[in-house]
Amino acid sequence: MKIYVGHSKQLDNEEQLYQPIRDSLLNDEHQFILPHEIHKEFEKVKSIDIIKNCDLMIAEVSFSATGLGIELGWANAFNCPIIFIYKKGSKLAGSLKLLSDDFIEYDSSKDMIEKIRNILKKM
Q1: How far apart are CA 101 and CA 104, in angstroms?
Q2: pTM more than 0.85
Q3: What is the extent of the structural domain holding 68?
Q4: Could you point out which of 24, 86, 99, 109 has its C-alpha 20 to 30 Å from the C-alpha of 16?
């Protein structure tokens, strides 16, 4: 499955999000597109074109961000399913409920990976 992972720039994406995904078995089972990583095959492609061709978007929504909101709009417009993940205690925008019913609260990187794995198994 081709999965786009969107998030705010406020998140420490390398330590809190990217490295746990890359170090997990999920990385062997699915193709994760992590937009702030350098991917030579995606350097000249716009996010909208990547999202259009994805099977799923995982959005880390612990912090709100305009760019993430735009990407979520694209995913919704292209009928790309969205799963929201967020750190325990985060305040989420109510409008997210209009885009998906799939919300995953996590309290650690390990917990996040385990919960993502469980929901992906059901898909």
Answers
A1: 10
A2: yes
A3: 2-122
A4: 99
Per the CB < 8 A criterion, the answer to whether 83 and 32 are in contact is no
d(CA 20, CA 81): 22
List the strands of the sheet with 103-106, edge to edge: 31-33, 2-7, 56-60, 82-87, 103-106
Mean pLDDT by 10 residues, the chain (123 residues): 92 78 93 79 74 96 92 97 97 94 95 96 89
Contacts of 119 by beta carbon, 8 Å cutoff, 6+ apart: 83, 102, 104
What is the structure's pLDDT at 53? 94
What helix, strand, coil percent values describe the chain, rounded to 5? 45, 20, 35
Strand partners, 5: 58
Tokens for 20, please give them: 């746990």
Strand partners of residue 106: 87
Write the DSSP symbol of residue 13: I
Number of domains the chain is built from? 1
CATH number for position 115:
3.40.50.450
